[in-house]
Design brief:
alpha+beta, two-stranded antiparallel sheet, zinc ion binding
Length: about 110
């Protein structure tokens, strides 16, 4: 989840806006872990000593973690996958709402 602290939150927003200028975070906005350095995380080992003993590690970001890894490769005049989806959606809507071609009578052939 996006941080609640204003200074850190603004850094996250600036990071995202490098590629999506008009983007605004919602209550459920998140960033993938690949945008952070490993040092931005804390890790814990949880042991389950009951029947079928097991363990797992849990990782969460530190409160002051700021994304620094830009994984988006810039391509000249390339559309993002989001932009491509928007174009396809818009074109599909136009096709669905365009009037049908007039039917030809047999005398036009």
């Amino acid at each position: 989840m996006f941080p609640r602290e204003d200074v850190t939150r603004e850094k996250w927003v600036r990071f995202v806006r490098r590629h999506r200028a008009k983007w605004q975070p919602s209550k459920t906005s998140v960033l993938c872990y690949v945008h952070f350095e490993l040092s931005n995380f804390e890790q814990r080992l949880d042991l389950n000593l009951g029947e079928g003993s097991s363990f797992q590690t849990k990782r969460w970001s530190k409160k002051d973690a700021v994304p620094t890894k830009d994984c988006v490769q810039q391509q000249e005049n390339a559309l993002s996958s989001r932009e491509q989806r928007m174009i396809i959606r818009h074109a599909s809507k136009q096709l669905m709402t365009s009037p049908e071609e007039p039917k030809r009578s047999s005398s036009q052939f």
